[in-house]
Amino acid sequence: MSVDTAMQNGERHDFSKFQPIIPIPDLLAIQLASWESFLQEDVLPEKRENKGLEAVFKNMFPVEDTRNDYVLEYKHYYLGLPKYTEKECLERRISLAIPLKVRFVLNITDENDRSKYVQSIEQDVFFGNIPYMTESGTFIINGAERVIVSQLQRSPGVFFDQNFHPNGTKLFQARIIPFRGSWVDFTTDIYDCIYAIIDRRRKFPATLLLRAIGYSSNRDIFESFGLTTTYKISNKKDLINKYLLEDIIDKNTGEVIAETGLLISDARLKELKKAGILELTVAKNEESLEVQMLKNTMGKDPTKSTDDALRLLYQHLRTGEAPSVGIARIFIEKMFFST
């Protein structure tokens, strides 16, 4: 057989001296297998594994309104057929896509018992068209073939870094990357204040975030870092010139007799002892860098309680005032603690 005839028949002749040690693998297998695993197109809806698109829906649903009047549950999804062939998409300069329909169940809860449903409505909802992969592992987008380029993704974890300000001050950064959810960055400035940044938005004092997630008072924040110690009020030498970490309240009248941040003096100790206060909790080693940075950050923080912090953080993230503290609390809990 001549070379021309062999080329016409699609045959390939190998003139190399050394034969390959292993056969060349199917280079499209990774893309095709990944796409098949993502869609599970040939699997019955009730038998799909919890992966790919199925896992996305199951992780996002059910969803409910703020008053828990309605609960929207996901059942399964359906995939249709492409409206046009690959050739038609290339000629018409359109995208190769398939319709996605999702079956939802809308549950109406009982006003007296939110765990019970008084009515359930099941319906298929057209979710839109999604791109469809060809047999050659490509996508056709607006009449042009595109391929998926694999890239590295930052793995979840906590990462630390440092750099220098132009004036020579060392600045520190920490980044928390969850498997799913908002990224949280912490950074210091030249004035030894600590700021938090959520999803690369505007920065705010880090203690505001701590108050919003439950560390309401200055004492709670210092205790979370192990920076507090408690002394009996008779121990003057260890309390003089220290600062109060919380409001001191008269047990008899309920009146605040000393506010957070006040300097403890001999006269103030006598007043507190007269009011029946037996011991005080103050910061350990107030000259240490850790204590000074927390105090500097608290000086930038306008909030004094968890409720104040929830309102301000909600406004910071949603650019609008929260309807209530409860709604702000649910929003923050879903952002950081809900899977």
Detailed description of the structure:
The chain is α+β, with helices and mostly antiparallel strands and 339 residues long. The protein folds into two domains: 29-147, no CATH class; 206-336, Molybdopterin biosynthesis moea protein, domain 2 (Alpha-Beta Complex). It contains eleven helices and 15 strands. The protein has helices at 3-8, 29-39, 52-60, 86-92, 206-212, 218-224, 236-239, 266-274, 289-300, 306-318, 325-336; strands spanning 63-64, 70-79, 97-109, 117-131, 138-141, 144-147, 157-164, 170-177, 184-188, 194-198, 204-205, 228-232, 248-249, 256-258, 279-283. Helix 5 packs across helix 10 and helix 10 packs across helix 11. The protein is elongated and about 105 Å long. It starts with a helix and ends with a helix. One of its GO terms (molecular function) is DNA-directed RNA polymerase activity. Keywords: DNA-directed RNA polymerase, Nucleotidyltransferase, Transcription, Transferase. Residues 27-167 form the RNA polymerase beta subunit protrusion domain. Pfam families: RNA_pol_Rpb2_1. This is DNA-directed RNA polymerase.
